[in-house]
Amino acid sequence: PLAAKPFAVLAADLASVAAAWLAAFLLRFNFQLPDEYLALALRSLLWVVPVYGTAFLAMGMYRGMVRFSSLPDLLRIARAVALAAAVVALMAYLAQFELIVPRSVIVLSPILSLLAVGGTRAAYRAWRESRESRDTGGQRRRLFVLGTGEPGARLLRELATSPQWQVVGAFDDRREAHGREIHGVPVLGALADVERAARELD
Predict the structure, then answer these.
(1) Which of 102, 198, 97, 67 has the alpha carbon at shortest distance from 145?
(2) Which of 121, 118, 59, 117 is nearest to 87 (CA)?
(3) Helix, strand, coil: what percent of the chain each, to 5?
(4) 15, pLDDT greater than 80
(5) How many CB atoms are located within 10 Å of the residue 105 CB?
(6) How far is CA 177 from CA 33, 132, 140, 181, 186, in A?
(7) Is 35 helix (H, G, I), strand (E, B) or coil?
(8) Strand locations in the chain, DSSP E?
């Protein structure tokens, strides 16, 4: 079962999906939505939202923490939205409605959903990092990263936006890495040079 916080994130995502679905109808009719299509848009939310919710859960969107959302999380969201959009399109085609859901709504709503769901995560992460930076008085602790292979590069990428830590340099025994930059962080030398660099930093 979902914990309280992931459940809140799911609820926010489904609200974004509902808003995107209604916005797609509004855009289709240039914000002059006929009453019959407004009724169709609201009635269809009863099955569109559960479809998206099922796809979000099936694709594992709530395994990670929102505050650490990154490119892999965005790709997972995109796959979940694509799956849900395909199911919605199929259901809209098979359903015997008095009015047909416009094709432009079928195309536009997943785009708006992806922007809304992904955008809220990006905004939340930016807000958290900004708040944490204020809480620490804007002072970040300086540190070195040892190793610039794949694990080190991932660590540098994550620390690049950290409000608590400032990476001032990296070290690696591979000579070809010396003098280069990884995610904006200079590779200052070999591991044997760490002690000297620490003294200079102090």
Answers:
(1) 198
(2) 59
(3) 65, 10, 25
(4) yes
(5) 25
(6) 60, 33, 26, 8, 9
(7) helix
(8) 141-146, 165-171, 181-182, 185-189
Q: What tokens does 149 get? A: 């292979």
pLDDT digits (tens, 9 = 90+) for 36-68: 999 999 999 999 999 999 999 999 888 766 555
pLDDT digits (tens, 9 = 90+) for 165-182: 888 899 999 888 898 888
* CA-wise closest residue to 91 among 38, 54, 36, 39: 54
Whole-number Cα distances in Å, 123 to 96, 100, 179, 187: 39, 35, 35, 31
The token duo for 39 is 């009724």
Contact indicator for 108, 16 with CB cutoff of 8 Å: no
Residue 184, burial from CB neighbour count under 10 angstroms (0-12, 13-18, 19+): exposed
